[in-house]
Write a structure and sequence with these properties.
The structure is a homodimer of 400-residue chains. Chain A is an alpha+beta fold. The first copy, chain A, has 2 domains: 7-61 and 224-391, 3-Layer(aba) Sandwich (Alkaline Phosphatase, subunit A), CATH 3.40.720; 71-218, no CATH class. Chain A has helices at 14-17, 21-29, 46-53, 58-61, 66-72, 172-194, 196-203, 226-230, 241-249, 268-278, 291-297, 301-321, 368-372, 381-391, and strands at 31-36, 82-91, 97-99, 126-131, 136-142, 211-218, 234-237, 253-254, 284-287, 329-332, 336-338, 343-345, 349-354, 377-380. In chain A, strands 2, 3, 4, 5 and 6 form a 5-stranded antiparallel beta sheet that branches. The interface between A and B is medium-sized, with 38 and 27 residues.
């Protein structure tokens, strides 16, 4: 949601240009500030940004995106497991990657061909391959002596063959896990090549999903649940797998979101309705909308503004349907995504906090600059959760 | 440049009292804040302050001033070496220090008498003695098992004999290096005593430079170059040795500055001209003016204001001659030096940031208090470099 000033918007940011009366109302009635998601100037990936907003210092606890992605897909990932995210992709007869997304195929059609995978050289390793959304998938390896310190097979652009997965440190565990992964990718390639869906695609001149690319090998973050830290229950209202995964590792219930797509076509008000329904059953709800980020990565100013206005409608629903005498609401972004650069940037994000006991300040609008003069000053992402829990009276005293 | 409010200036700081339209223009068009050079309330030395502004946490990487001073004098200082800064000084016949600066002698006249120094007990130790500006000098020791954890021979004021250099920890390396240094200072004392320049001075009733005092033993800071961290090239436009040394350890090219003196008589516009000439060859230029600090240490209000106005002329030249569509400019101070206390203080310094994508705020003047209400809030010195590199798109994403 956060961005930089744009010439196209007469020097305003998309947030400043959007019509967002509900967000402004929260800023006006609440206490505002700006927040460096992980540290000043440092652009965060969505994985570490969401861990930080949940109160976990990613510089301490982060161990790769793959495990978050797999947890978010509903897979079981335990300490000792290694998980990846990946894509179905298309290689040509020479083995060169010609489509990193296999024509944005719906990978779930291949599910039955990717079960009961046994690796000939490593029969003791348990493999789970789970197609998620469109061409995306998650993989979990379970076995002894696995390491998440291994590289990607995804060459990340260019017409090149997929890369061999390499260890990222000199441990025998990393070397072994790289070998296991390379063998797995070979087995999956054979399975996909043989499967009738792909053979039909080839006959029809379509791009077969004939290879799987993996990236972001990871282990689950080493963190304690929010319940353990603050004695609160948490629910996640999000569709994006990595956001769900971060919430899952914090011990939250992951709720189904009818109408939620994880894209710009998501039904934001439907998300607010889910919150309205479940708010009495949980102490804390993490509500995430991905669409503004998608629009930013596409460089689509108009769409980003439209998404902000859809978020505003969602927030209006919350304001109208939650009991504001006993509810705290924090409105923020997990990172700045620059429309101009089409990528994440390390600029701070705006934050507005509404609730019965906040120190209301003079800020009257929600935006990157308006919030900067607010009473919260400039904080870090990891500060947000203790600040919220403090309002609930749930932060244990330090000292005595 | 930064200071505290002064009664003599009707409660204004020197920055607030000075006429500085160019600095104000940057504040007006840019984004402002205040910055604790190292940490709130903690007065930094110039060495650690400049390391922090270059993005290096001095609480982690700093290992004494001497190595920075020697690097800044153009000497070769490697890991394992120990370097000092020092003064030519005068002792009387009883060995008591009577002038810490030997009448502010130009030490370079002694250069030939200070070469090929061999220590009788430590012939394997290589010694370089390099007179720098006025009575100042730098010394580098190279050898095995040296430690920078040793004290000063400079008694820092009072009519006392020079101190014996003592180890600052219990390691045999510190003990050995203290002994080596004491022997070196004895050898240098003999050489200076014997040299005809000093004999002539004694005959003329002038103070001979008959001893060398050392202080600030140091090893080079353990840091990675800016190129390694962010992929950018850097240039240093400064005369002050410790500023040059900090830039040198960050991997910058140290440029000659015609007209630069490191004092209040420096030609600030000449410095801006150097920047103008080289800006296209470097990604980052560190431009430092020392004179405001000198004026502060002397308690000279008028001179400090004049220096600020000279800095303003320099900034005007930059505004007029740089391509502001593609250049970011940060204006700040490496520390607060109090005119009243005549020393460094731990107050925050003002910061103004101009550039194509900054979030312009409502600040209209450059000063300690005006900047405090700006959009950058309150940051630390080590945050500045990532914030700048973020605007260049050069900070690596953390996470994925």
């Amino acid at each position: 949601m956060a961005d930089r000033p744009l010439r196209e918007l007469d020097g305003k940011t998309p947030l400043e240009a959007a019509n967002k009366p509900a967000l402004d109302e929260i800023a006006h009635l609440g206490e505002c500030g700006i927040m460096d998601p992980i540290s000043p100037g440092r652009p965060p990936g969505s994985d570490v940004a969401n861990l930080a907003l949940l109160g976990y210092d990613p510089f301490v606890c982060y161990r790769g995106r793959g495990a978050l992605e797999a947890l978010g897909a509903g897979l079981d990932v335990q300490e000792g497991d290694v998980a990846f995210r990946g894509n179905f992709a298309t290689i040509d007869q020479k083995g060169v990657l010609v489509d990193r997304r296999a024509g944005r195929v719906d990978g779930r059609v291949f599910k039955e061909y990717l079960t009961d995978v046994i690796l000939p050289s490593y029969p003791e390793v348990q493999v789970t391959v789970c197609p998620t959304v469109e061409h995306r998938l998650a993989i979990v390896l379970k076995g002894k002596g696995l390491s998440w310190r291994i590289g990607d097979s995804d060459p990340h652009g260019g017409e090149a063959p997929p890369k061999k997965v390499e260890p990222l440190d000199r441990s025998p565990e990393a070397k072994g896990t790289a070998e296991i992964t390379n063998e797995l990718l070979q087995v999956l390639k054979e399975r996909l090549g043989d499967c009738p869906i792909n053979q039909r695609k080839v006959e029809q001149g379509l791009k077969p999903a004939n290879i799987i690319l993996v990236r972001g090998a990871g282990a689950p973050p080493q963190i304690e649940s929010l319940r353990k830290l603050y004695g609160v229950s948490g629910a996640c209202v999000a569709v994006n797998a990595v956001v769900r995964g971060a919430c899952c590792s914090a011990g939250f219930d992951i709720l189904e979101v009818p109408g939620g797509t994880g894209g710009v076509d998501t039904d934001t008000v439907a998300k607010a309705r889910v919150v309205e329904e479940i708010i009495r059953r949980y102490d804390f709800v993490y509500l995430h909308v991905k669409g503004t980020d998608n629009a930013s990565h596409d460089g689509n100013i108009e769409l980003k503004i439209k998404m902000i206005e859809k978020i505003d409608a969602m927030v209006r629903h919350l304001l109208d349907h939650l009991n504001l005498d006993e509810t705290y609401i924090a409105i923020t972004a997990d990172h700045t995504t620059s429309l101009r650069q089409r990528d994440h940037r390390g600029d701070p994000v705006p934050l507005a906090l509404l609730g019965p006991e906040v120190r209301r300040d003079n800020v009257t609008a929600y935006g990157e600059r308006a919030c900067a003069s607010g009473g919260l000053g400039r904080i870090r992402g990891v500060n947000l959760m203790p600040i919220l829990m403090n309002f609930l009276g749930n932060v244990p005293l330090y000292g005595s």
